[in-house]
Structure prediction request, 71 residues.
Amino acid sequence: MAEADNVTPLRPRRPCPECGKPSTRENFPFCSPRCKAIDLNRWFSGAYVIPATEEEAEGDQDQAERRHDDE
Prediction:
């Protein structure tokens, strides 16, 4: 059992991005299922957005036009 006490974690503990409490292994990088759910809800509601560039938007439009032409 003494060996288990000397185990070094693979990554350092970091604060939860939602509340600042230490993160847990089960919910990393969050401290609890509640903070994890809050973050997921923000993604679903559109509070977090990954910006797109003009090139990506034009590429998506070209693909949509190709699909329409194939029909």
Observations:
- Residues 13 and 23 are 6 Å apart (CA to CA).
- The chain has one domain: 9-70.
- The mean pLDDT is 81.
